[in-house]
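Lecture 7, part 2: worked example. A protein chain together with cobalt (II) ion.
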Amino acid sequence: MFLEDYRLEGEHLPIYTYPDPVLAKVAKPVEQFDQKLEKLVRDMLFTMYHAPGIGLAAPQVGESIRLFVIDVDFEREEVTRPDGSEGMEFSNLRPMVFINPKFTKKEGEAIGKEGCLSVPDVYEEITRAERIVVEYQDLKGQKRTMEADELLAICLQHENDHLDGVVLIDRLSPLKKKFFKTKLLKDKKRL
Ligand code: CO
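Predicted complex, written out as structure tokens:
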């Protein structure tokens, strides 16, 4: 479901990075569909578009609940305004919100390079299902179903992993995972 009447407004939320414990937790179902939830969703979209990223899950901003936002279509461009100031301009926004998602069908295999805002500088090939059907709730709590393939299917599976406490490097071979874990911990110490 696309968020209707969406305007790019909100606050920048801090993005938690590996190995923050919030990223390893199994997130709790969303039960209250209220204004607080709507604000969180708008701030998450704002944060995702500016990062930029094509998906952001609630645990990545420190909220351990089953919710993520996705937009695999938008464009972002650096612009110089008439007054000489520089900024970012966004177009073709198609924000999607998934609450309490559950995959009811997974078919085929697709391999794609994935990155993650919570796992900086790691881009690795991951095997996912090629086509999926996802059941979820929208911002009003309404039950919905969506079929997805290609990039959207991969992105849905990546974001859903975050709700189960799984990050990108958990999907790699034990040897690769160890390599990236050591590297990420070193990088973090240096910051
Ligand atoms: Co991610």
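The chain is about 25% helix and 30% strand. Residues 116-118, 158, 162 surround cobalt (II) ion (CB under 6 Å). Keep this in mind for problem set question 3.
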